[in-house]
Design goal:
Elements: H1 2-15, H2 18-25, E1 29-34, E2 37-42, H3 45-54, H4 56-65, E3 72-77, H5 79-87, H6 90-93, H7 130-140, E4 149-153, H8 160-174, E5 180-184, H9 185-197, H10 201-209, E6 214-218, H11 227-242, E7 246-251, H12 263-269, E8 273-276, H13 282-295, H14 302-311, H15 316-332, H16 339-349, H17 358-369, H18 373-377, H19 383-399, H20 404-410, H21 415-431, H22 433-450
Helix pairs in contact: 1-4, 7-8, 9-10, 13-14, 13-15, 14-16, 15-16, 17-19, 19-21, 20-21, 21-22
Length: about 450
């Protein structure tokens, strides 16, 4: 189990931003297992509570992907650490600043948070992403190109986060004095709101406009409907572009397709190169498999690699999940890595053919949320209707082979809105337990009828 826990932590390092990982996840230590309980040691009581609230669900997901099911995580603070915390009572710490455990030190680039594993050398290039790779590398290497803005466009799990962080890592490797700012749109928005509340908005503006040579901003599609954030980002981009700074964005939606987006900001986002990353073809998936097996230090036969590459067609994360499952079964269950185990894994990870009827999905969701089909398809923007509508879209994308245009037509939405709602539910499942549990319940309902 300790080996599996180490593997899970490695995977979490690639999912969670570096600062959060170093602060909350890296200090976690495997203690022991007892029956269905897995005991994990935390640095202190505060760390334990924070990890339970914010990271337990994603840890469960990674354990599940590694073949560890129906187990319960128990987070403990060791007796020695409890004693230390007791000694550091309020009376003892007055006048002293509390240190936050394992907080990464700021570097000359301003404390940039990037995953060091995301480099150009580790990015598998194929026909689906060759242009995106080339322009990203040219921008990072300061080639004599006429553009300083890049918009990486792709669905989830196809490598846009890898490329945008590769740009940052490459620049820092060549020019460590450069100030690179990496953030998600959610980070940008939350920081702006916090600065407004604390009356420190000028510091926020200086950070993003003046104290920044390269801005890497992920998840631009979440600007939808955020008028104040859109306005602030517009001014920020004007300042950066005027000073000749580099700006790179990622999104599953092109600027003009993002709902409720101001036209002026949309034009700014589209002022540079927009490049799409498609789904990898068979040969690219096979190269990805071989690279990932080398990274994870496992060996699989050629026929098994070919079978996995042929059947795992969704995205790179699906391939990584399959390899983690292979490794876990090989280590824990002492199973031989062969075609039998590969078929078992494909059945587990990609078990369903896309045969569900959209009418059945709509009926099930309407019944669950107690709304009518007319309300589901209405143009109302009330959350009691928009949330179920987004879930219908997510389930249709997961369990049917219908196009974005077709799904949107049934719900009176355009294809961009369909893609946005799909991404919104995927994000909600990662960050909100309530959303994840509701969607998982509905998925089980669908799958039980397909069995």
């Amino acid at each position: 189990m300790e080996t599996i826990w180490s593997s899970v932590k490695e995977d979490l390092e690639g999912i969670i931003d570096e600062k959060s990982y170093s602060l909350w996840v890296k200090p976690l230590k495997y203690l022991h297992s007892s029956g269905k309980n897995i005991c994990i040691e935390c640095s202190n009581n505060f760390s334990r509570d924070w990890v339970q609230e914010h990271y337990s669900s994603i840890i469960y997901d990674q354990l599940y992907g590694a073949g560890i099911k129906d187990h319960k995580l128990i987070f403990k603070v060791s007796s020695a650490k409890k004693q230390s915390e007791s000694e550091n009572s309020i009376d003892n710490i007055i006048g002293r600043q509390l240190s936050i455990p394992n907080m990464p030190k700021k570097t000359r680039n301003g404390g940039v948070v990037l995953n060091k594993r995301f480099t150009f050398d580790k990015f598998v290039v194929g026909e689906c992403n060759e242009f995106a790779y080339s322009v990203s590398k040219a921008l990072a290497n300061d080639s004599h190109m006429s553009y300083s803005s890049l918009f990486l466009l792709s669905e989830t799990g196809l490598g846009k986060s890898h490329l945008i962080q590769s740009i940052g890592n490459s620049i820092l490797n060549d020019k460590p004095e450069k100030k690179i700012l990496y953030a998600t749109l959610e980070d940008f928005t939350n920081e702006m709101v916090s600065s407004l509340k604390s009356k420190s908005i000028e510091q926020f503006k200086n950070k993003y406009r003046k104290s920044c040579d390269v801005l890497l901003l992920e998840g631009i599609h979440f600007l939808s409907g955020k008028k104040k954030t859109q306005a602030e980002l517009s001014y920020t981009l004007d300042s950066l572009f005027n000073d000749g700074k580099k700006v790179i964005f990622t999104s599953p939606l092109a600027p003009k397709e993002i709902p409720d987006m101001e036209s002026m900001l949309s034009s700014r986002l589209a002022s540079g190169i927009i490049t799409n990353i498609g789904k990898p073809d068979f040969s690219t998936r096979l190269k990805i498999l071989k690279q990932k097996t080398a990274e994870k230090k496992i060996t699989i036969p050629e026929d098994v690699a070919g079978y996995l590459a042929e059947n795992l067609i969704n995205d790179i994360r699906q391939i990584e999940g399959a390899l983690d499952y292979l490794k876990a079964n090989s280590l824990l269950m002492k199973k031989k890595i062969g075609m039998g185990l590969a078929k078992e894994i494909v059945k587990h990870i990609a078990p369903f053919k896309k045969i569900v009827k959209i009418d059945d999905i709509q009926e099930m969701v309407c019944k669950y949320f107690r709304i009518t089909l007319d309300e589901l398809k209405s143009k109302s923007r009330k959350k009691i209707f928009t949330y179920p509508r987004s879930i219908v879209i997510y389930l249709c994308r997961k369990y049917t082979d219908k196009s974005l245009k077709y799904i949107g037509g049934l719900l009176n939405r355009n294809h961009a809105t369909v893609l946005y709602d799909d991404e919104k539910i995927k994000s909600g499942m990662k960050n909100k337990d309530a959303v994840r549990k509701e969607v998982e319940f509905l998925c089980r309902q669908i799958e039980s009828k397909m069995a």
